[in-house]
Amino acid sequence: MGTIYQQRIAALRELMLSKSWDAVIITGSDPHCSEFPAERWKQVQWLTGFTGEAGDVVVTADHAGLWTDSRYFIQALTQLAGTGVELHKTRVPEQVLIPEWLAERFDDDSIIAVDGLCVSAEYTSSLPGSIVSVPNLLDSLWDGRPGIPQTPVFTADPGESRSDKIGFLRSWLNGQGGDSILLSSLDDIAWTLNVRASDIEYNPLVISYLLISEGSVEWFVLKDPVEDPETEQTFAALREEGILLRQYADVELALSQNEGTMVLDSNSINHHLWNICGGDVKLVPSPVQLRKSIKNRTEIDGMREAHLQDGLAMEKFLYWLENTVSDGVEISEWDAAVKLGQFRAAIPGYRGDSFETISAYGPGAALPHYITPRENAPVIEPHGLYLCDSGGQYDYGTTDITRTVPMGECTGLEKEDYTLVLKGHIALAMAVFPAGTPGCRLDALAREPLWRAHRNFGHGTGHGIGWFLGVHEGPQDIRQNLNPTPLVPGMITSDEPGIYREGLFGIRHENLVLCTEDGSDEFGRWLKFETLTLCHFDTSAIIPELLTAEEIEWLNAYNERVYKTLSPYLPEEISFWLRSKTEAI
Amino acid sequence: MGTIYQQRIAALRELMLSKSWDAVIITGSDPHCSEFPAERWKQVQWLTGFTGEAGDVVVTADHAGLWTDSRYFIQALTQLAGTGVELHKTRVPEQVLIPEWLAERFDDDSIIAVDGLCVSAEYTSSLPGSIVSVPNLLDSLWDGRPGIPQTPVFTADPGESRSDKIGFLRSWLNGQGGDSILLSSLDDIAWTLNVRASDIEYNPLVISYLLISEGSVEWFVLKDPVEDPETEQTFAALREEGILLRQYADVELALSQNEGTMVLDSNSINHHLWNICGGDVKLVPSPVQLRKSIKNRTEIDGMREAHLQDGLAMEKFLYWLENTVSDGVEISEWDAAVKLGQFRAAIPGYRGDSFETISAYGPGAALPHYITPRENAPVIEPHGLYLCDSGGQYDYGTTDITRTVPMGECTGLEKEDYTLVLKGHIALAMAVFPAGTPGCRLDALAREPLWRAHRNFGHGTGHGIGWFLGVHEGPQDIRQNLNPTPLVPGMITSDEPGIYREGLFGIRHENLVLCTEDGSDEFGRWLKFETLTLCHFDTSAIIPELLTAEEIEWLNAYNERVYKTLSPYLPEEISFWLRSKTEAI
After folding, report:
1. What is the largest CA-CA distance in chain B?
2. A290 near A475, Cβ under 8 Å?
3. Cβ distance B288 to B166 under 8 Å?
4. Is there a contact between A523 and B448 if contact means CB atoms under 8 Å apart?
5. What pTM does this model have?
């Protein structure tokens, strides 16, 4: 009999046998190389039961393996138990990635099948053997496979018109010597057209393609007939500006009929579209990624407003949490997440959370990507550390914040870790650096306080964040990988060092920071960070002797600013409570 | 008439005209891509008068230009005055490098001549037009051009036999599927054969090539007949081990007759040899670079001894300097350099300086690569800062140290800069980091104290150093460029932040540090630095309030260690003086 996953893998092997495929690769991505795919493209989950955000599967006649990174090792081992699928670890020194693994087993006569829609053009070139690209490969096996999502499309107002953005793309295209550019990354498209929807959970995106040439703009977005008035209105406005709305599936026709030089986004074009594209093809990273990472004045103002509103929700939540738990009421991690969601939902312009809230008490928080269980979630006890990583999508911006709060007495180790992570957070927040500096050169500032104590964390220190778009966006970041993209004024990045002790607790202190100018002099042009997030850091778990005078000064000034900014909008009792929580140390 | 340089460029243009060359590139390197070439290959200096360590020249019918980096802008402008040669700046954001500059002016029909011996194989592939490679291109114009140097060759004892090293190379070659490997980098050859000479000033190297295959080792080293007994003895020992000694020039014959697969070092093979090589050619970075950067026990012990001896010389020098200047004796920068050289020359096993001593008082020190003038050198006054960057070559190791010392009263700015640079030095010296970390991720630790005060320095923070070899060696470094080479236990690197204020003063605090293990735990394997250099940091120019408690602790412990280690070997009055200089602050 076997589990449902064993049955599905067996069915796939039957298909492979009938087609003479030696191996099949099933990826965790969608036709747009999205970080988070819609239900239809959660193929890895359907096949193996693994729900992590990153994971690819290879099935051969005698092996089924899941490749995923250190964030998901524990989760993968649990979820793959009994499926016969083996875990292959990535982002570890001894990693053997899928192309190498296949190359060790298969020669040039082998046939390797992929769903060409769900792998990138670049990826297939790294594989051995003959590649067979089968769009929607799993369709025949997957009963009731969800369709392509179609949620209401509405207009966003980022202070820059879509015609200006299209103008930017045309002038860039000119410089590249291209006749047209196909945008395939969903956030690139949403940014360019100032449109939003909810086709992907937590991501306000519209599943579509956008083709721009000197003379035309074609948006491949239509699926089933449009029935809701919001979408009708948005589409009418676009048509009025001369934008042609076409069927989503017609992108294949448009590409196959291409005659000039078409620029495809090397970071998001899938193998299938690249393969069928006629004319001359130029694979170049989309210029939208860098352009949209640099927020304009309206977007920055919106982000400030979002952080004010979000901070008020956070403080209400933390006040409720502290008082409820200390009153002896039994609150589970799930209850807390729901409560926080309610505070956010009351904010004007709220469009949903920006990712699934991580609400984790004690050992659960030791998993950086913990998923709070809906049923039987652990109860938050009146001691130790509770970690909450969450964020909202608002019409005027996106937030992402982590607070780790003492629920009562903490151990010496908890306090030491809490303080060292905070030192790292502050070091990055206070950093001044020359224009041109990439984030990877600053990453060690946030880690050195931990490193000196022989401690570390296994994720990046900072990721870019979109304006009412994805909570993760490039091209900049602050992490160990040597990404050469410089930090530029207007970019918004997280500052989130942490520490994770298996079976004990986890700590992360996360704010969003805006890169800003800091003057020029004989030594060059200077940049710094301005913290956008507004929510106090609890000082009761701090060991003050571990902080320098400068760090204490930063912390006191930050907490004071949080109090001064938020208290006018808070109910009196919460304002009073926040005053005490933000007392200088 | 014109200057001698105008005449030489005019003569070169005549040659170009007669050969129908559109452009000639003259580089500052030698046939081995050495950082410091011997006199014979100081072609840029001969042609233009520019003496900087980095610079390439392009001459066309109507333009002569020198390309050099920010370290040499001021020097180049001075030295090029009246030559008609224009300065092209490199390592600046707006730089236009030689290949781009030529591509803007010349098309594929143009003829560009290079001395194929003095440009790398890689470099020529980046140039436009047809490349004409003319070995020794300047020979016909350069009367009395120096020959290839030939200094006595002797044996070094690094605790690892040349047969072991040849064995390492053969096994590496095997893994590469090559039949033979040609080592062309002079330090690779000196390391492999455990030989040294003085063919290049400050660099104990033998100008030669080394060809290793499974069955033979051929050293292309012979020039004029050998007459000195040291060389005879060394050569006899090599022959006894089966190493074939051949004429330097015969390397061309050997390469042109190659039939199997020959591995050439992509970092140091010149265009000419690459071009004439027969059989199959594989361009790969030499494995010797990484291997020799990781010092063995004997080399590390030798480096410790070298730093003890060198530290004694430094302390004697600083004692003499302080007392002589405060006694009102007129000492020039040059006098000081000579005196320091005398202290080093008295050390057993001294083989010369490891580079030209930078002895600079006040404004001179504002040039990171200042050359102390032999005639009319500035006098060291009893106030302000004196900077001395120097090092020695010893039979058992190589040193490189910079001390900046207050000669009396210092200004507030001098003290502030002195302290901030020291903070940066200490931050790097105290760093703990996970195994696998490249130096570029640590560079900001040494800069952030300066950055926060809107100050910076325009050179790297740390370079690798050889064991009785070049004072600069790769593959690791600690600098802004994103060099991915991890720091590995056994590597020795400098820690030398600085600051330079044009017209005022310059500060640099430089020690050599050894990368060592620092234990393993649940978070991974840890590395740290051990400071090798032994010479106190003067505390009188420090503003203690700018240092953290941890930094003060490091400084006091370092100065105490210097005193404890050196004082037993110092004359009583210097030991007494050093006691007072190393009092805890």
Report:
1. 75
2. yes
3. no
4. no
5. 0.92
Q: Token pair of A422, please?
A: 């905070």
Q: Is A397 exposed, middle or buried (0-12, 13-18, 19+ CB in 10 A)?
A: buried
Place of tokens 């291997």: B291
Closest CA to B331 of B415, B414, B407: B407
Token pair of B112 as six digits: 């560009």
Rounded distance, CA B454 to CA B544, Å?
Answer: 20
Residue B327 CA to residue B320 CA, distance in Å, equals 10
Kindly tell me the number of DSSP H helices and DSSP E strands found in chain A: 17, 28
Q: Are A293 and A272 in contact (CB under 8 A)?
A: no
Tell me whether residues A523 and B455 touch, CB distance under 8 A: yes
- Match 């000034």 to its residue by tokens: A557
Please report where in the chains the tokens 């352009």 appear, as a residue. Answer: A291
Structure tokens at A575: 């304002």
Q: Which of A441, A451, A548 is facing B480, going by the closest CB pair?
A: A441
Which value, to the nearest 10 degrees, does the dihedral of the CA atoms of residues A319, A325, A331, A336 take? Answer: 20
Determine the Cα–Cα distance for residues A128 and A126; give it in Å rounded to an integer. 7
The neighbouring-strand residues paired with A151 are: none
β-sheet bridge partners, residue A88: A67
Which residue is closest to A433 within chain B, CA to CA? B451
Q: Nearest Cα to B560, choosing from B583, B527, B542, B585?
A: B583
The vertex-A327 CA angle with A324 and A328, nearest 5°, equals 95
B49-70 b/e with 16+ CB inside 10 Å = b? bbebbbbbbbbbeeebbbbbbe
Could you tell me whether strands A180-183 and A261-265 are parallel, antiparallel, or unpaired per DSSP bridges? parallel
CB contact under 8 A, B451 and A526: yes
Digit-coded pLDDT (tens) for B256-275: 999 999 999 999 999 999 99
Task: Measure Cα distances from B235 to B110, B240, B525 in Å.
Answer: 47, 9, 44
A452 interaction partners in chain B (CB closer than 8 Å): 430-432
What confidence tens digit (pLDDT) does each residue in A164-218 have? 999 999 999 999 999 999 999 999 999 999 999 999 999 999 999 999 999 999 9
Q: Is the peptide bond before A489 cis (omega within 30 degrees of 0)?
A: no
Closest to A121 measured CA to CA, from A291, A287, A284, A292: A284
Average pLDDT of the residues in B76-91: 91
- Closest residue to B444, CB basis, from A430, A442, A524: A442
Q: For an interface test with A, which of B430, B440, B454, B504 has the most A Cβ atoms less than 10 Å from its Cβ?
A: B454
Q: How far is Cα B101 from Cα B89, in angstroms, rounded to an integer?
A: 12
How many residues belong to chain A?
585
CA dist B233 and B430 (Å) reads 46
pLDDT along chain A (585 residues), means of 10: 85 96 94 92 95 92 93 87 92 89 92 94 86 93 94 96 97 96 98 97 96 97 91 97 97 96 95 94 96 98 98 98 95 97 98 96 89 93 97 98 97 98 98 97 98 95 98 96 97 98 96 98 96 98 96 98 98 98 97
Q: Do B445 and A445 touch (CB under 8 A)?
A: yes
Contact by Cβ (8 Å): B455, A413: no
* Beta strand ranges found along B81-170 (DSSP E): 86-90, 111-114, 130-133, 154-155
User: What residue type is assigned to position A179 of the chain?
Assistant: D
Residues B96, A158: Cα–Cα separation, whole Å = 37
Block residue for tokens 């436009």: B128
Please report, for residues A206, A207, A442, A573, B453, the alpha-carbon distance to residue A150 in angstroms, rounded to integers and kept in the order given: 8, 8, 41, 44, 53
Q: Which amino acid is at B94?
A: E
- The end-to-end CA distance of chain B, in Å, is 63
The two three-digit tokens of residue A142, written as one number:
């997957």
Residues of chain B with Cβ-Cβ distance to A548 below 8 Å are: 548
